[in-house]
Amino acid sequence: MLRFIALFLLATTTANAINIQKDSIVANIPPEELTFVTWEEQPEFPGGIKALTTFIEKNIQYPKEDCYAMHEGRAFVNFAIDTLGFIHDIKLLKCCGYENLDKEAMRLVSIMPNWEPGTLYNKKINFRLTLPISFKLK
Hints:
The protein is of the alpha+beta class. It has two domains: 33 residues; 102 residues, 2-Layer Sandwich (TolA/TonB C-terminal domain), CATH 3.30.2420. Helices cover 40% and strands 25% of the residues. The protein has four helices and five strands. The longest helix is centred in the N-terminal third of the chain and has 26 residues. The termini are far apart.
């Protein structure tokens, strides 16, 4: 029983120390200037996941030379969503193996409409997302 109480106190003290440290770091910086990996609500594409899938299907332009060569793959595109929902700082996180397909994945992200920003403590925050974009011939 004494061991349980000691572990409980240690866990509680550690959790409180982490919360105090986190609050003191975040307290001095406006939320709109931070980029978080913790959130209350994650950013959302207008209309949700189904609308995002539809957007990609309607707007993807499979490069002709890659189509003829039967190239397929999946590119991972990382991007920032600011507090207004604008997309910026688009980066190719993982190549699919074909330069034209990688460029198309980045182009798709660049033409997306504004997202609904993520929130933390009921305030809109900057957020980074990674989106896999698959290229598969039918």
